[in-house]
């Protein structure tokens, strides 16, 4: 086992099919798509449940159930049902993303200081204004934490796409194993790990930017 | 004027929070709703801005039923201050105060200019404007809470235990500042507290509630102390209400005796009472504007049982012993 595959400049050529940059791009593509779809589904549901308190068993149990589903198994099931293609991969990854976003949106809304919301209503904010101007900004730190953990999981797990013939960094692992090229497997593992760290750092900087300094505890 | 017309609030489950309340809160005055916990005072307050809907009866502001008015618009016209201030933690002090003007459609610039002015009004320097609520002390947060409620210059203010979360020293300070502010602004204020001393100190009128949502008495603080409606009110007002009621009268009509036996300096200012071991302190002096409570306290604390009155120039112009005070009070009663 060695770093020859990882360090070979030929594998880092931009635009080359099967090159590492191209694999990273497709890997990020699956990640972003799954996160977007997952957020569109989980955010409104989690916020609604957290806001009203109705159906909180759903938020908690869906979270646990979703976490215990093996993504690879789910992917195989989807492929059997829907055939090969992008759709089964996205479904499997979205199922992975929904629980942490849903639970954190719920928890973020539940953790809000009700007195502040009472003040907002009492000052004459309409329900929509209370949600967008007070509740969401205040829930943002918790909510964003869930989003970051979802992003980490999906970056690590998007390697499964390669097992059903798609691209992404999983290609390095699958193809490397197939031809006993452990240097390639190692390269895949390292690039995925580094990518996960970079994505998290990127999201952390966005979080610093959009979360109000007033919510970062007493300075 | 805020009017409660036979208002009842029964919560699902059958608990009666407010039981046939009829009450008028006069315009430009401060009415304090006071009572033990669970007496319906906060529920009543929250019916004024429709945070709570009455089960039956009506709440009117200047003759208009609040039930028919748009909730949000109604509330923007009523200042709202709550316990612990309830400031928005994610907004700066300035933006907190600018909230209602912005809701009313003012530009950010006008709203912020107004907010800055109000911060000054409640005794906070412009340096606080850019801070976040978590960086303020409890007393400072409460000041911001008051400024935020005043920002759109509403004719009515609702205050729910606004001063209960701060320590006694800060509370006394906030009381004094608030009374001064109210003297300038003349708002119609409804305030809730469980502290009868606060109610008597701040209120033009006091409404005493008892458990079960009954109004036990509505009176001026002075009447409340002098003529409690029943045992519950008498008990709630406290044992030393006689002494406390003395704070409502000044010493202007209190007869004094000529100055005698008191050492004076050349300008006639009191130096002390001569005693076997030299001069003894008078323990303070009073003027015609001071309350009878101050005079009584001075007489009790004085080494010779006599309080010293001074004129505007600081020269002693009369003496009052505690016998004199007792005689004066007896003559007032007859």
TrEMBL record, chain A:
Q: Where is the ABC transmembrane type-1 domain?
A: 24-203
Per the UniProt record, one Pfam family is: BPD_transp_1
Q: Which family does it belong to?
A: Belongs to the binding-protein-dependent transport system permease family.
Grouped into one coarse class, the protein's main location is: membrane
For this entry, the protein name equals ABC transporter permease subunit
Q: Which terms are listed as keywords in the entry?
A: Membrane, Transmembrane, Transmembrane helix, Transport
Query: Where in the cell?
Result: Cell membrane; Membrane
InterPro entries to which the protein is assigned, alphabetical: ABC_transp_perm/SBD (IPR051204), MetI-like (IPR000515), MetI-like_sf (IPR035906)
- Phosphoprotein in keyword set: no
Q: What kind of membrane protein is this, topologically?
A: Multi-pass membrane protein
Q: Which organism is this protein's natural source? A: Actinoplanes sandaracinus
- Any stretches that span the bilayer, and where are they? 28-50, 71-102, 150-174, 186-210
Automatic annotation (TrEMBL), chain B:
What GO MF terms are annotated?
Answer: ATP binding
- InterPro entries associated with the record: AAA+_ATPase, ABC_transporter-like_ATP-bd, ABC_transporter-like_CS, P-loop_NTPase
Family annotation (SMART domains): AAA
Q: Which PROSITE patterns match?
A: ABC_TRANSPORTER_1, ABC_TRANSPORTER_2
UniProt xrefs under Pfam families: ABC_tran
Task: Write out the entry's keywords from A to Z.
Answer: ATP-binding, Nucleotide-binding, Transport
Q: Which domain of life is it from?
A: Bacteria
Q: ABC transporter domain spans which residues?
A: 2-237
Query: What SUPFAM superfamilies does UniProt report for this protein, alphabetically?
Result: P-loop containing nucleoside triphosphate hydrolases
**Family of this protein:** Belongs to the ABC transporter superfamily.
Task: Specify the protein name.
Answer: ATP-binding cassette domain-containing protein
């Amino acid at each position: 086992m060695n770093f020859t595959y990882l360090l070979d400049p030929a594998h880092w050529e931009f635009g080359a099919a099967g090159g590492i940059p191209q694999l990273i791009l497709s890997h990020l593509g699956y990640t972003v798509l799954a996160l977007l779809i997952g957020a569109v589904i989980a955010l409104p549901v989690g916020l609604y449940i957290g806001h009203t308190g109705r159906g909180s068993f759903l938020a908690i149990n869906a979270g646990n159930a979703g976490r215990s589903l093996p993504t690879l198994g789910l992917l195989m099931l989807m492929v059997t049902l829907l055939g090969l293609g992008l759709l089964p991969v996205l479904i499997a990854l979205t199922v992975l993303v929904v629980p942490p976003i849903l639970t954190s949106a719920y928890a973020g809304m539940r953790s809000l200081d009700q007195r502040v919301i009472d003040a907002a209503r009492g000052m004459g904010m309409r329900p929509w204004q209370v949600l967008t101007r007070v509740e969401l900004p205040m829930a943002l730190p918790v909510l964003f934490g869930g989003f970051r953990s979802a992003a980490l999981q999906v970056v690590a797990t998007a390697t499964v796409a390669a097992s059903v013939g798609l691209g992404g960094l999983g290609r390095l692992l699958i193809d490397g194993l197939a031809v006993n090229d452990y240097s390639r497997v190692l390269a895949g593992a390292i690039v995925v790990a580094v990518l996960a760290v970079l994505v998290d750092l990127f999201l952390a900087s966005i979080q610093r930017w959009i979360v109000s300094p007033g919510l970062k505890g007493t300075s | 004027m805020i009017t409660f017309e036979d208002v009842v609030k029964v919560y699902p489950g059958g608990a009666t929070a407010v039981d046939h309340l009829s009450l008028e809160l006069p315009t430009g005055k401060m009415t304090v709703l006071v009572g033990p916990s669970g007496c319906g005072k906060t529920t009543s307050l929250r019916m004024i801005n429709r945070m709570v809907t009455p089960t039956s009866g009506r709440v009117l502001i200047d003759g208009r039923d609040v039930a028919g008015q748009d909730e949000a618009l109604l509330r923007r016209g009523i200042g709202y201050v709550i316990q612990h201030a309830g400031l928005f933690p994610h907004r700066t002090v300035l933006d907190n105060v600018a909230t209602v003007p912005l809701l009313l459609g003012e530009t950010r610039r006008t709203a912020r200019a107004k907010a800055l002015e109000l911060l000054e009004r409640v005794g906070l320097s412009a340096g606080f404007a850019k801070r976040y609520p978590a960086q303020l002390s409890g007393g400072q947060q409460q000041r911001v809470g008051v400024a935020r409620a005043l920002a759109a210059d509403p004719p009515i203010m609702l205050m729910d235990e606004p001063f209960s979360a701060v320590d006694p020293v800060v509370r006394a300070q906030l009381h004094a500042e608030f009374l001064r502010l109210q003297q300038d602004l003349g708002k119609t204020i409804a305030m809730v507290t469980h502290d009868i001393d606060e109610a008597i100190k701040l209120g033009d009128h006091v409404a005493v509630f008892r458990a079960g949502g009954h109004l036990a008495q509505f009176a001026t603080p002075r009447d409340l102390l002098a003529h409690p409606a029943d045992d519950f009110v008498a008990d709630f007002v406290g044992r030393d209400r006689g002494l406390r009621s003395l704070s409502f009268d000044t010493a202007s009509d209190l007869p004094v005796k000529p100055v005698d036996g008191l050492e004076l300096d050349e300008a006639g200012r009191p130096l002390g009472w001569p005693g076997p071991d030299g001069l003894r302190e008078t323990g303070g002096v009073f003027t015609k504007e001071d309350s009878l409570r101050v005079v009584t306290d001075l007489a009790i604390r004085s080494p010779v049982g006599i309080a010293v009155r001074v004129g505007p120039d600081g020269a002693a112009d009369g003496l009052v012993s505690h016998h004199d005070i007792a005689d004066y009070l007896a003559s007032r009663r007859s």
